[in-house]
Amino acid sequence: FLKTKDMTEMCRLIDEAERIFVYGSGTAQTTCARELQRMFVSRHRYLILIQDKIEFDTMLDDFKGNDLFIIISLSGETPELIPQARILSAKGIPFISITNLKNNVLAQTTPYNLYATSKPVTLSDKTEIVAFAPFFLVGEALFRAYVAYKEERNNID
To answer: Which end of the chain is less crowded, N or C, counting CB atoms within 10 A of the terminal residue's CB?
Structure first.
């Protein structure tokens, strides 16, 4: 999927955004968001990490059309996240969704979608865990696409 996905428009959004916010809908998703934040520092694009729903709601009135959001959600169906995504959409604020590879509300709310393929694994004690490595790979693929986009743009100028 990542090899065939054209991320040019997403890279343009990242490049042109005045501010970039990144939001993970859970603990593992927030860890992925921090890693994305860390990678983009090397390209002088500083992602603002939103910690939780309360912080998002507090900042809501300050979000502008020239901002960009990157939202990381395992299911893309988190009940608290859907109204937030719809508000962004209604305000004309673009966002990139990174979700598991399935039809979901978050991905339907934006034209800028990236998908990870992560399946739950049941351990011997019946505990179910989901591997998040694919989400980190998707984040790195977005970062690498951005680096290539910038290099190409610099060669044109």
So the answer is: C
